[in-house]
Amino acid sequence: MYPKTVFHSSFSSPRERQFVFTAKHPSGQLSLRAAAKAYGVNKDALSRRLSGAMAMDARVGPETVLSKADDYAVEDALIYASRHFLSFGRQQLIDAVRVLCLHGRPVPWDPDKGPGRSWLDGFMARHPALSERTTHIYEANRINENDEPRLKDVYKAWGAYVMENKLTADRVLNTDETVEFWQGSTPQGTKAGKAFALKGSKVPGTRRANSRENTTIVSTIGADGHTYDPTIIYKGQRMQPDWVADDNGIPGARYTVTESSFIQSDVFLSYLRNLREQLNARGLQGKVALVLDGHASHTTFEAISLAISLDIDLFQLPSHTSHMTQPLDVGTFGTFKKQMTKVLNAYPLQNGGRSPGKRDMAGVIGRHGPGVLHLRTTSRHSEGRAYGRWTWRRLSARKGRQRRRPTARTVEVVGRLAGGRAGRGAGGRAGGTGGEAEGAAEGRTGDVVEGGER
Fold first, then answer.
1. Cα distance between residue 43 and residue 37, in whole Å
2. Strand locations in 151-253, DSSP E?
3. Residues 6+ apart with CB under 8 A from 335
């Protein structure tokens, strides 16, 4: 005879609830066979639970492919992504689950294709708080509409996030990458440019390499002006030591390769880990916010999961708006690319007609990049510039501000990439590793406005 059993878990299905009723029968005098028959449950399953061989809250029926911990981890990642404007759709979910199950775990689907519709239906049933919603695409022809309602939602969400977490300027970061073509393009890029020649002569030619070669620079700068060590990505299958043998690149920079030279998911994962190490070295343990664009490498399940474990909140900018909202895109990389274009165009003239190779790029970036990779911050703007303001106030007055010049209180904050020189302005000074404007010392986070000489 089986006495009443203390039961400590709730069940989602009627069949699971029957175990509760069976184990907690008021009389406490039902036999195992009678209890199983009375409630229509399997006798062996009931016996295993009552004997302690199986937990009382063990799921009835076949086990899920993912463990309970993995199942809830996937749900947490989806919720995290939706709250931070990281578009994580059905295909990304299928790919993430497929990768999770590649380590010898038996799966009922093709390992190369991942789970199908039946698994997705079961997953959604197990997590009723989730729903599959249609996303909003910010079309390119609407990127300058400051009053676009859904763009306001992004600003509102960002403002609420900053207020809730009470993040200081040194805990608000922006990451972006820029691609510099140094072979396979003409002086003006992929278009034919202009050159001086004798009147009446044929059209002058310009030399171009047989294949396009490029280098990607991934950089992070804080709202306080501090610049973190960048990662430089070459095109190739394997990193060659002689590419950086001269040791004349940016101090602290990391070098890696991808097949296209563009950032990929595994490179971004390594970048996040290294960024966390740099933050810890500055004494910035704990939560930080990392604002970035919607590149595919930024929105993978692995990237989101790693960011959660590192206490880095990823906040994605809406598509087609980075030229307005991303400080690095507006105020730093634009100036940097113009400067690098001049340097690379002049390189053959200064080196006997030889085009730069991979071994030369670290030195070129190390010599000429630091002078332009920096931010400008301002201690006082009534409403801020249309782009780069970390509080992301509404942009309704943007058109009226376009003709205004920055105030005299503008202070240039130069990070490590600016060569360690101190910026000077009427509002104060900032050291080579970053600083804050006078207004920030009064409790206000400085705006981030475009860099470069005016």
1. 8
2. 172-183, 213-222, 231-235
3. 372, 450, 451, 452
Q: Does residue 277 surpass a pLDDT of 90?
A: yes
Question: Please, which residues bridge with residue 290 across strands?
Answer: 173, 314
Q: Minimal CA–CA distance to 2: which of 42, 46, 54? A: 46
- Asked if residue 412 lies in contact with residue 425, where contact means CB atoms within 8 angstroms, the answer is yes
- SS3 (DSSP) at 61: coil
Beta bridge partners of 258: 235
Its pTM stands at 0.55
Which residue type is seen at 316? Q
How far apart CA 280 and CA 13 sit, in angstroms, is: 46
| Average pLDDT score, the chain | 67
Which residues does 83 contact at the CB level (< 8 Å), separation at least 6? 157
CA distance 223 to 292: 13
Task: Tell me the residue type at 145.
Answer: E
Q: What is the CA radius of gyration of the chain?
A: 29
Cα–chain-centroid distance for residue 58? 37
pLDDT at 424 over 70: no
Measured distance CA(30)–CA(274) in Å, rounded = 62
DSSP 226-277: -BPPPEEEEESSS--GGGGTT--S-TT-EEEEESSSS--HHHHHHHHHHHHH
The distance from CA 14 to its chain's CA centroid, rounded to whole angstroms, is 42
**How do the domains of the chain map onto residue ranges?**
1-61, 68-126
For the segment 145-154, the average pLDDT, to the nearest whole number, is 63
